[in-house]
Write a structure and sequence with these properties.
- The chain has about 280 residues and is mainly α.
- It folds into two domains: about 1-50, no CATH class; about 65-275, MetI-like (MetI-like fold).
- About 75% of the residues lie in helices and about 0% in strands.
- The chain contains twelve helices and no strands.
- The chain has helices spanning about 5-35, 55-60, 65-95, 100-110, 120-130, 135-160, 165-170, 175-185, 190-205, 210-215, 225-230, 240-275.
- The protein starts with a helix and ends with a helix.
């Protein structure tokens, strides 16, 4: 057996082991979701009788549809603001040739290093003063504010690779700044935009801390809060199979969304490295 062939075999074995380790928590979660509440057997062994009633109960009694809709509203609003404001800011910073633009970039990097939880008290006080507590637009605005620094950094890294000749040609044709950006520059950023959409959408979908503090009204709960409430004990008994089924339902949209757009993430990473 040649050395190259042995290396390939070892790589495949290592990849298989990593895949198994990664898939194990999902298998255990699904295994628990199809069990009876009284089934205390090994979580690595499938139950003798598969119980789909947990999924029926999760869809009909847990408020998961309202949580799904609330999460979708938050994600759409937040991602739209992140993409719009960060891309426009990156365009301005990349085209500016002043020290101020460099200082703004440095401040942006500094803001990225600050954990959002450390600003929780001040953030909550600000949201109360602005009367944005228990509102989905308020949560969307907060999610966008915490996501813009990283998005701005990513857009700025790609924006500098877009030739300035495009701006000059647009100006000669009489196009203004906004027209130049939206009709000429922004279409050049398709791969990084989709990459940022995926990153921002998954981050907003899985956000737990801020919704927990800002959304006290159960009708405003996002999907992650519905999942959290499923783990609460009712009459002293925790229905873990029902909670696991709720988790599976909440995870599926994220997995489908990622698999549908993963090629754009890879394309964006390759373009970033090549440029």
């Amino acid at each position: 057996m040649s050395r190259n062939h042995s290396s390939h075999v070892l790589c495949y074995i290592a990849a298989a082991v990593i895949c198994c380790i990664t898939a194990l928590p999902f298998y255990v979660l699904f295994n628990m979701s199809v069990r009876s509440i009284h089934d205390l057997g090994s979580k690595l062994r499938m139950p003798d009788a598969v119980n789909w009633d947990n999924y029926v109960q999760a869809f009909t009694e847990s408020g998961i549809w309202r949580g799904f809709l609330n999460s979708l509203i938050v994600v759409i609003l937040a991602v739209a603001m992140i993409i719009l404001f960060s891309s426009m800011a990156a365009y301005g910073l990349s085209r500016a040739r002043t020290r101020l633009a460099g200082y703004i970039g440095t401040v942006n990097l500094t803001v990225m290093m600050i954990p959002p939880v450390s600003l929780l008290v001040g953030t909550y006080s600000l949201m109360v003063a602005m009367k944005l507590v228990n509102t989905l637009p308020g949560l969307s605005l907060l999610s966008a504010a915490t996501g813009i620094p990283a998005a701005l950094f990513l857009y700025s890294s790609f924006m500098v690779t877009v030739p300035r000749d495009l701006d000059e040609a647009a100006m000669i044709d009489g196009a203004g700044i906004l027209t130049t950006f939206f009709r000429i520059i922004f279409p050049q950023l398709k791969s990084v935009t989709i990459t940022q959409m995926i990153i921002s959408a998954i981050g907003c979908w899985n956000e737990y801390l801020m919704p927990m503090y800002l959304l006290q009204n159960s009708k405003k709960h996002t999907l992650i809060l519905v999942i959290k409430s499923a783990f609460n004990s009712f009459n002293g008994v925790a229905n873990l199979p029902l909670a696991a089924a709720t988790c599976v339902i909440g995870i599926v949209p994220v997995i489908v969304f990622y698999l549908a757009l993963q090629k754009y993430i890879i394309k964006g990473q390759i373009e970033g490295i090549s440029k």
